Amino acid sequence: MSWLQGGPFLELSFIIKEPTKLETVISKMKEGNVKIEFHCPSDYIQQFYEGYLYDEDDPHSVKIHQITINLTVHTTRKRRALLLVEKISSGLLSYSICFFGDTTDAPEWNQPGVRHDELDEFISLLISLYRELKFSVGGIAIEEDTKAFFDVNETWPNENYNLTNLKFEDNLRKFHAVLIDQSLKNKLPDELYTSINNSGLLYRSSFN
Questions:
Q1: Distance between CA 199 and CA 82 in Å, rounded?
Q2: What pLDDT does 20 receive?
Q3: Which superkingdom (predicted)?
Q4: Which partner for 194 in 2, 31, 67, 202 could form a disulfide, CB atoms 3.0-4.6 Å apart?
Q5: What is d(CA 20, CA 101) in angstroms, rounded to the nearest whole number?
Q6: Nearest-angstrom CA–CA distance, 68 and 94
């Protein structure tokens, strides 16, 4: 049986600047208020740095750096999750934690769903990760991650995936919550936000 089955998936995602090492991010994720277990051998992460060619027949093809790691996340109800890490440009990494996101449970897969009253647990997890990692932008949405905020049509990796190309207006309300670094405040539409840790701004959608 695969680690996570079915769908839709609730994605808790964030964008972080390189050269933050993957091992450093994993270590800090373990230090947050919510216990997160990582299930991967120690040498597995090296595959992320080695990468692979987008076109195996072209030695000059762009190199892809991505990895998927099985997690157990100890919210009130213990959950299986997948962590997808992708290098989207020379300066940015995308992290996405995928949970089984249906509103009803799937006992046949031992996967609890996400009830509306449980969303606050994931928002608390997003805040906890921000306090540890100080990522640039993070969010929580069904079948969507924070790469959607880039006003870029190219596939990644591509140097157009940089913080100057963030655009929030069109996609903000697709997210249950969005948390950005204070330095990006001028890119936000006129919304109500909560200050987090004196350096972040949390937006919560009133439509979810």
A1: 28
A2: 82
A3: Bacteria
A4: 202
A5: 29
A6: 12
SS3 content of the chain, % helix, strand, coil (to 5): 25, 35, 40
CA–CA distance, 16 with 83 (Å, rounded to integer): 14
Q: What is the pLDDT of residue 2?
A: 87
Phi, psi of 194, deg, nearest 5: -110, 130
Single out the residue of 91, 39, 90 nearest to residue 67, CA to CA. 39
**Residue 68 tokens, joined:** 């998927």
Beta-strand pair 194-196/63-64: unpaired
> How many Cβ atoms from other residues are within 10 Å of residue 57's Cβ?
6
Model pTM score: 0.94
Note the pLDDT of residue 207.
56
| For the chain, domain boundaries | 9-147
| Token pair belonging to 109 | 């897969």
**DSSP H or E segment with residue 111:** none
Closest to 114 (Cα-Cα) out of 105, 126, 124: 105
Residues facing 92 on adjacent strands: 17
Which parts of the chain have pLDDT scores under 70?
1, 206-208
| 9-147: CATH topology | Alpha-D-Glucose-1,6-Bisphosphate; Chain A, domain 4 (3.30.530)
Q: Give the integer Cα–Cα distance in Å for 175 and 146.
A: 9
CA-closest candidate to residue 27, choices 127, 125, 132, 181 = 132
Best CA proximity match to 99, nearest among 114, 86, 110:
114
In one letter, which amino acid is 82? L
